[in-house]
Here is the input.
Amino acid sequence: MEATLRGESFALSLVVIVGFLLGLRVRHGVWHRRRVGERVLIFGKGFLGSQVIEAIEGQEHRRYTIVGVVHDAENLGRVIETTRPDRIVVALDERRGCLPLCRLVESLARGIVVEDVAETYERLTGKLALEALSPSSVIFSRDFRTSRLQHALARAFSLLVSMIGSIALAPVLGAIALLIKLDTRGPVFFIQERVGLSGCAFKLIKFRTMHPVSRPKSEWERDNYDRITRLGRWLRRFRLDELPQLINVLRGDMNLVGPRPHPVTNLELMILAARNLNELTGDAIPYYALRCAVRPGITGWAQIRYGYANDMDEETEKMRYDLYYIKHMSLWLDLRILFDTVKVVIRGCRSVTAAAWRGAPAARPSPEVNP
Here is the structure.
């Protein structure tokens, strides 16, 4: 009798779990179908508004459809009635005295989503609109304050993967070290001071991929490309030169995922370059310093979405992605970044294999700052 009751309880529990999962699946499907092709009305003609329009028109899967663009508040009500949008994106550069509050509140009451253009831009592009950030939105907002729990999860995950990786890849690390010694004269490792958590400096370890010199021309890879060794080109292509940074992770200098650490010599230069980007107020805001709010990583959101930078403009563009990561930092985002990093490496392997099969030279590896 007792065994029968246990069996029935187990069967009932199984049915409940399966039903719950099926319900989630159906709910997700309904939500997804409802969101596909969402009708968007752009209100305003600011710079970010044009960027949002360009992003929507260039999307691979038509999640959004632009049904209209209206520039003045007088015609907003008429256009809303005509186009019947699901979402209104407010893209006004100047909003004082120009924001039709009644129309927008009425739209909210009717179930229409009213959204600031910076949020839309962020969601579509995966980067922050630095021009739209105000001092108060950075200083007083909780968006850039990563919780202790999130820090702990990222650290525990990084430690676990690094310990397993260091043991599993020990033969590979030894083989690469031997090949470097056989290929060129010089040390096996390249060690450089980088900026880490809270702005503290640490010594980053990489496999050496360049011929040693007493003093490099600059920190930019493009100015030192002629110094890259034969083996170094391959190590860079498959990101194998980054493997010794597992030691940095174990030491607590880095995590697996995070903004790439910049050289200490670049710190003052990057802070100056990151200032005066706020076109709305003109205030000098050292956004660059926010990168130091989390541990740097071996890979990161900026690396998979943008690649490597080779001048100040590209570094500023990369910072938009780094700040997006800090704002949305989570274990799931870290897993996605690691998964995409693996795809990038596999894609590089395929390109090399395809080039070798055709007898053509492989494409030049992505540029990278620092040796």
Notes: The CA atoms of residues 145 and 327 lie 8 Å apart. Confidence is low (pLDDT under 50) at residues 14-18, 24-35, 359-371. The two ends are 73 Å apart (CA to CA).
